[in-house]
């Protein structure tokens, strides 16, 4: 809504056109002049991602902000896509990886474009094994599988920035996390849902780190923004730690993601 309020043309990408149109109607109730459109996109389906990218690039010659915000969180049981991808990893990383790749030329051609990949503090719970990316050899763990996909987000962010630089682009790759936010999904999950109902911030507050990441003119490449006090507070730079900072792991995940999605980006001159 804030992007539309500021005069941006916003493309809403979602699996359900009906839900997308409902979202547009809600925005226009508050921002009557909003410029909006909805296009179908299922990030667990490679064909859907390719169709979306083709439609978008046919209609639009520039892309100022790509907000990789789709997310699956803490499903009750193990699930895989038709291609055998674990559903958290498919939705939260591989789908975004392919989508960004198919839009890469448009991003590079747009001065000062920005890609915001939404992560989570849950990345700290990750035990990412590139030999078992889809977690077929391990018992199912809601937090663990989700954490793996959220670690993939900053790993992708860093490696993507290297590709922008290799392409001579002014585009920036950044990331953000919302903190503890009172989404419907978050409030439906066990003890965490109980805590969320009483302690979480409204969704409008959870959107702020993403909005600042997308629009702040002086943001640094590979910045990671989140609530100042971890779960609450105004958007502030957050220090990433552990495997998220491992350049070799970033490049290994990148290579594996190219193999799985069947899409190859430009080479990075300073890849690890």
Strand order of the largest sheet: 3-4-5-6-7
Q: Round the Cα radius of gyration to an integer and report it.
A: 18 Å
According to DSSP, the number of beta strands is 7
DSSP helical segment count: 10
Helix share bin: 40-55%
Please name the CATH topology: Rossmann fold
**CATH class descriptor:** Alpha Beta
> What oligomerization state is this entry in?
single chain
What is the structural class? Answer: alpha/beta
Notes on the protein architecture:
There is one protein chain. By secondary structure, the protein is an alpha/beta fold. It has one domain: NAD(P)-binding Rossmann-like Domain (Rossmann fold). 43% of the residues lie in helices and 12% in strands. It is built from ten helices and seven strands.
Topology:
Elements lengths: L1 H4 L3 E6 L2 H14 L4 E6 L5 H14 L5 E4 L18 H16 L1 H6 L4 E5 L23 H25 L5 E5 L13 H10 L3 H4 L1 H8 L8 E4 L7 E3 L9 H15 L11
Parallel strand pairs: 1-2, 3-4, 4-5, 5-6
Antiparallel strand pairs: 6-7
Helix pairs in contact: 3-4, 4-6, 4-10, 6-10
